[in-house]
Design brief:
about 210 residues; mainly alpha
Length: about 210
């Protein structure tokens, strides 16, 4: 067993080396960063020694590899496995936070979809609920605020589109949505300005 532990530990350290950005060498010449090799190593550690010393950490590092490669769904699945497979792991708090971070980063990439943003908000809320005393709780709260600003901006842009098309009734619905759902966002004040502008335009039409 000690021999196996030693081999797995050595393999794990090599994986961490590749994860940190070390480059593979071919004939003594450095080539591409070996993130794919890190993935392969961490997968082997998890497969061959799932409940050994490095099982949960290897799975966590696997998630970090996928996140660096912007393969967010695979990253989230790896972090979720840390939570599911290692309920007593010290990494559960970090894994839950990383899941939310993956959704947040994915939500910032085009095309924008409110579904991913909502997922990220809910995941950060879940993290804060489960780990209120975590060092990352403040960052989670700030991330929620940023994501809500993004949601408000999205609704505002839809309203602006309708306003430019002179479809004022539809525009008003979305501007009011911004004000009602995101009253603390910077877009709420802008929405009110545009509602007043629309009211003036409609008044001129009625004359």
């Amino acid at each position: 067993y000690e021999k196996v532990r030693e081999v797995v530990g050595r393999e794990f350290k090599i994986g961490e080396m590749f994860l940190s950005g070390k480059r593979r060498k071919l004939m003594g010449i450095e080539i591409l960063p070996a993130m794919d090799k890190a993935i392969e190593i961490f997968q082997d550690v998890v497969k061959n020694s799932p409940y050994g010393e490095f099982g949960d950490l290897a799975l966590f590092r696997l998630g970090e590899c996928y996140r660096k490669l912007e393969r967010y769904q695979e990253a989230k699945e790896s972090f979720q496995r840390v939570i599911d497979d290692y309920p007593n792991s010290k990494l559960i708090s970090d894994a839950r936070f990383q899941i939310a971070l993956c959704s947040q980063t994915a939500s910032l990439k085009p095309p924008y979809t409110q579904e991913i943003t909502k997922d990220a908000i809910e995941e950060f809320k879940e993290f804060m609920k489960e780990h209120p005393d975590s060092d990352s709780a403040k960052e989670a709260k700030e991330s929620i605020n940023k994501l809500r600003e993004k949601e408000a901006e999205s609704l505002f842009k839809i309203a602006l589109f309708y306003e430019k098309q002179a479809q004022y009734n539809s525009a008003e619905i979305y501007y009011k949505d911004v004000m009602n759902k995101y009253p603390d966002s910077k877009w709420a004040a802008k929405a009110l300005e545009h509602l007043n502008m629309i009211e003036k335009k409609k008044s001129r039409r009625r004359r």
